Amino acid sequence: MDPLSEVLSLLTAQGSVFAGLKAGGSWAIDFPPPDGIKFNAIVEGACWLTVDGVEKPIRLESGDCFLLSRKRTFSLCSDLSLPAIHSDEIYCHAVNGIARCGTADAFFLIGGRFAFGEEANLLFDGLPPVAVIKSGSDQASVLSWALHRLAHELATPSPGGSVVVQHLGHIMLVQVLRLYLEQEGNNMPSWLLAVSDLRIGTAIQAIHADPARSWTVEDLAQVAGVSRSTFALHFKQKAGITPLEYVSRWRMQLASRSLKANHATISSIAQKLGYDSDSAFSHAFKRIMKCSPREYREKSASVIRP
């Protein structure tokens, strides 16, 4: 399994919501920061999108899609000079998740929101606050189709619906990530940039295949087929962290999943990930996750229990 597929396999949608917006005339709406990542597709009409922290407004046309990957306020409007109403004012009257604003006859947007756990940080840390996919691209057509299917699954619950919704979220996310990796000029260090590099990606795949191994930089450089110094420098430039720090962080991703998903003892999880003692594992876990394994398990259980 390639690293991107493996990280996606760790993701579990903790919540999914569909929403639509019909608008017309002169209109402007402010939205709160989304809880999770938000996919949107313009089905009809056009609008302006502004996102907190993004310098320039973005013009969106019919067929365009966009993804919001950060918890930032954003606005949609027909005219940038108009005063905006808060989204609560219209969504409290939504029917089947679709709100109406103004004449509601010129603009139609559909959107889906997925809330994932902290395992998703590897992916989202590499994305810009807003990613736009223009109409006519394969990615835009897939996103639009998936959003329509999401609306259908949530509006008409059927057996297996939760699995379908989760897979739709993964499909949409993969399309956006592929587009991001294809674009030029994405040079900010990130996991996505590292895994898309042929040599660094090969080393990351080796780490994922055997996370318990006592990896050294020399080992990983040999896997990548370059010298130790070249590999260490190139890895840091692409990923933003050292190779051995990545080994530790990936282990903690796997450990956090095990702590949430099953009742295995902390000792067995530590041994499975290559730690010689519980104290060494706990120290590494606390350094990266900011709490002990036991505290993490208790906190995760309290979230699931309600």
TrEMBL record:
Gene3D superfamilies attached to this UniProt entry: Homeodomain-like
Keyword hit for Repeat:
no
UniProt xrefs under SMART domains = HTH_ARAC
Q: Which UniProt keywords apply?
A: DNA-binding, Transcription, Transcription regulation
Task: Say which domain of life the source belongs to.
Answer: Bacteria
Q: Where is the HTH araC/xylS-type domain?
A: 201-299
Pfam families, per database record: Cupin_6, HTH_18
Q: Does the keyword Translocase apply?
A: no
Molecular-function annotations in GO:
DNA-binding transcription factor activity; sequence-specific DNA binding
The name this protein goes by in its record: AraC family transcriptional regulator
